[in-house]
Amino acid sequence: MKGKKLLALLLSVMMLVPLFAGVGTASAEEISGADYPTVFVHGLLGWGDEDSINKIVPYWGMTAGDMNAYMNGLGYNTYVASVGPVSSAWDRCCELYAQLAGTKVDYGQAHSDKSSAQFDELGYDLHHERYGRDYTNNALIDENWGPIWENGKVVGWYDTKVNLVGHSFGGPTIVEFLQLLAEGDEAERQWGMQQAKLYGGDWHDYISPLFWGDYDGEYLVNSLTTLAGVLNGTTFISACDDETAFLTDFVMTLGNAIGCTDLVGLYDFQLEHFGLTKTPGTDAKAYFDYIKRAGFIEADDQAWYDLSIAGCNELKQGWETYDNVYYFSYAGDKTHEMLGNNVPDLDMWLLFQPFSTKMGAYVNRYEFIDNVDGTRWGYVNNEWKPNDGMVNSIAARYPLGAAHKDYDENSIEPGVWNVYPDQDIDHLGFSGGILNSKPIQCRQFYKNLMEDIAATKPVSAENPFVDVNSGSVYYDAVLWAVEKGVTKGVDDTHFAPDSACTRGQVVTMLWRAAGCPESSLKTNPFEDVAGTSPYYDAILWAVEKGIAKGYDASHFCPNKTVTRAEFVTFLYRYSGSPAVSGSNPFADVSSGSAFKDAIVWASQQNITTGYDASHFRPNETCTRWQVVLFLYRAFA
Questions:
Q1: Mean pLDDT of the chain
Q2: Rounded to whole angstroms, how far apart are CA atoms 294 and 286?
Q3: Residue 466: Cβ-neighbour burial (10 angstroms; 0-12, 13-18, 19+)
């Protein structure tokens, strides 16, 4: 399989990178615009901060210096992820999510079962475990990002977004990551629902939030930037054969001869979820031979399949460009035309030149390329000749069929790929290069990249309501409630913030904010709650959990208006009715009131501040804006 040769070659390339001590950082300067952290995701056989090699030779900068340190020195908040260097895009996405959210890696049971089944079919004794490394209390980024957990439940989502930058295979990794955040995965959802039917509870509890798809996860990402990203597959795998075999043996032997015999602690393949671990004392070539014999690269759940044109066609189906996300892409072309083919420029890195030559002549082959919507673009033709030594220029510009425009620094638009002119850079040059990139040029490239990210204006949900003023105390709460599906306007342009809320309405909003959990109640005790009622599921859940009670054994009174005291009591009970200590600040809430603990708790949790410092007005009707504001403060 050609993918085997690609793996061996690129691993060898890694071992030849010279040691480099890193250059000093630039003096700090005032930066505006980059309000969110920026996370860099390496390509195939790359490495990150978890790998000791990154302290010796930084992936982002290589022999041009540590670009992450340089960007932090400029005042940007940048981080370097460490995802599986040979793993599939799916597995890398799961690892990236766990690192950002600070949780344990969950590859999904449906995915793990499918991968294991393929190994069985191929006759290999490999099994994909569902769980991987644990990043709990050890998140990559300092900012809180993703879901908010409380007692094992997701009770809300942080407002922090991230900017993602991916080089080479990091490109499709971050695009797929956004797609999972936004749409989830149907196979994982179905598995979760099956578990809920078998064992009860809410299906959300059985799968990672990365696979949910019922939260607008695209609002967790501000921008994507791909550098020589393999967005449509590459002909490298198909075009190059003999050269790869020769150079693999030569470079592996040379790498071992100069001392790269034991990479344990220096470089990590991160394949323990397949049961593949590296034994100390095993040289790189021996380990590569080991994973070949184990059958890892014979199945589809690995990087080279996703990098092939066929694999990438499958991966990118359904990729969308979201109106609130900014997209930037760089492609390289380090070739020129000669005698009808494209040949490498003389200053392309020497090791890439044989591959570039083969790719520049590899045309009219029946490798069909699909658009992101599944329609057929065509097959490899003359447009695929220009390349950077590893990736075709056309493959790196944007996913074929996706919305795109030429990059214009005065008109950076969200929801469309902003495509830079092809760069005179070879494939590794985008991440710093090996001996053929100048530190000053590399720094300027990354400075420009970060300035474009900083120039983006984060896009949030728009306010469609003429009766919700941007200066109102409940403005953000209303937009949050609509964005999260907690409630809707009374029509397309009105929210009716001062309208009274009923018992049925408030328990339904609370239920939705909690993720629409299923109730295990089999019978409905209330004759005034029909099975077709929009409140039906929410009321049964609220009663089962002790959040709300009926007015009597057979009546819930869903249309009765709810008071401020009653609603904060619902929230208090939802939170488990925690013990309350401290003084009661409200003169109109008596010490003997049944609502006292709930109101004091809500005040202490900053869910409410009262009408003033000493009055809560517990018996006043709770309005729509008050309900969503209380929910926003409790969940967001």
A1: 86
A2: 12
A3: exposed
pTM for this prediction: 0.71
CA distance 286 to 278: 10
237: DSSP letter: H
Let me know how many helices (H) and strands (E) the chain has, helices first.
Answer: 21, 15
Structure tokens, 588: 């109109």
Locate 14 and state its tokens: 């890694």
Alpha carbon dihedral 480, 483, 485, 487, in 10-degree steps, equals: 60
* Number of other CB atoms surrounding residue 325 within 10 Å: 25
Are residues 629 and 473 in contact, defined by beta-carbon separation less than 8 angstroms?
A: yes
Which of the four pLDDT bands, split at 50, 70 and 90, describes residue 294?
confident
What's residue 612's pLDDT? 77
Tell me the C-alpha distance between 318 and 85, whole Å.
25
User: At residue 603, does pLDDT exceed 70?
Assistant: yes
Does residue 351 carry a pLDDT above 80?
yes
Q: How far apart are CA 562 and CA 622, in angstroms?
A: 6
Instruction: Tell me phi and psi for residue 244, to 5 degrees.
Output: -60, -45
Question: Residue 166 forms beta bridges with which residues?
Answer: 41, 226
Q: Read off the pLDDT of each residue in 362-380 and give the average, rounded to a whole number.
A: 86
Helices (H), 132-281: 170-183, 186-199, 236-239, 242-257
Question: pLDDT (tens digit, 9 = 90+) per residue, 7-54?
Answer: 434 444 443 333 222 333 333 333 334 789 999 999 988 889 988 888
- Residue-wise pLDDT for 559-593, tens only, equals 999 999 999 999 999 999 999 998 999 999 998 99
Strand 376-380 and strand 404-406: the pairing is unpaired
> Which of 185-189's residues contact partners 24+ apart within 8 Å by CB, and which partners?
185/108, 185/110, 185/111, 185/211, 185/213, 186/213, 187/108, 187/110, 187/111, 187/114, 188/108, 188/109, 188/110, 188/111, 189/213
Q: How far is CA 515 from CA 10, 203, 315, in A?
A: 44, 10, 29
Q: Are strands 326-330 and 221-227 parallel, antiparallel or unpaired?
A: parallel
- The closest alpha carbon to 38, from 181, 225, 215, 195, belongs to 225
What is the per-residue pLDDT for 437? 59
What does the pLDDT average to over 94-111? 97
Compute φ and ψ for 172, nearest 5 degrees.
Answer: -65, -25
Tens of pLDDT, residue by residue over 49-72, are: 988 888 888 999 988 889 999 999
Run of H or E residues at 440? helix 439-454
Q: Which helix (H) or strand (E) holds 65?
A: none
Sequence-separated (6 or more) residues with CB below 8 Å from residue 75: 28, 29, 30, 31
- Neighbour-count burial of 315, counting CB atoms closer than 10 A to its CB (0-12 exposed, 13-18 middle, 19+ buried): buried
**Residue 87 near residue 44, CB atoms below 8 Å:** no
Q: What is the pLDDT of residue 520?
A: 86
**Cα→Cα distances 444→437, 447, 451, Å:** 12, 5, 10
Euclidean distance between the first and final Cα of the chain, in Å? 49
Tokens matching residue 473 = 């105390």
Give the β-pairing of 104-106 and 335-338.
Answer: unpaired
CB contact set of 430 (below 8 Å; sequence gap of 6+)? 167, 168, 227, 228, 330, 332, 388, 423, 445
Exposed, middle or buried by CB within 10 Å (0-12, 13-18, 19+), for 364?
Answer: exposed
